[in-house]
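Technical note accompanying the year-one report. For the benefit of new consortium partners, we illustrate the data format agreed upon in the data management plan: each record pairs a sequence with a structure-token string. No post-processing was applied to the example shown here.
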Amino acid sequence: MIRTVIFDIGGTLVDYPIPLNWSASYRPAFESIAAKNGLVITGNEYEHIGKVVAKYNTRIKPREREVSSDIIFTEILSGTAIPEGYKETVKRDFYGYFRRDANIFPDAQKTLAELYSRGMIIGTLSDVAYGMDNEFALEDIAPLLGYIKYPYTSNDTGYRKPCGEGLLMLSEKTDTPVSQMMFVGDEQKDIECARNAGAVGVLIDRTGTAGDFERDIEIKDLYELTALI
């Protein structure tokens, strides 16, 4: 019997209509930041910024442990003339550049409301991009937070998927045996995370392009989830 349902955020609850790998947009993002804040960034500084951001690009260099935004952006600014006092502004505008077209999927709110009405414990477990602070990551699911008792990201657990530690932490936090926990995500690493922890892995493949890998259950939209539980 499933007692707890944990959701990935990007691609599962929220649509981010941008490539998963942000590499091609590093410079445009920082050009936007410079223009918005009246900053001057030289060619050499753009080169430094690109190298640092690429260093923390988990689509190129996967890592198990999370790294905080303060570490990443301190390193970015250290190779530029941008004052340290601009760090929070630069962070906000960098993350905002990639989140500007984010939208909650139409099936998310109704599905979470239905699960909540049935007494299910609901949480999230999402890897953040480039150490993105929770204030930004969770802002994108603000209308859903009334249903989500445990809105966790890799900032909270310290681990990134497919490591199962985050789900094991949520199992303890929710007092739910991991075998009675369902994890819903849109990528192979989500399903591997569920398996590594011993939870039921549900792949949501909205486009039919998720790829050929083993999964416990597959759904095409979140509405199908309510029939499974």
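Partners are asked to follow this layout when depositing records. The chain has a mean pLDDT of 95.
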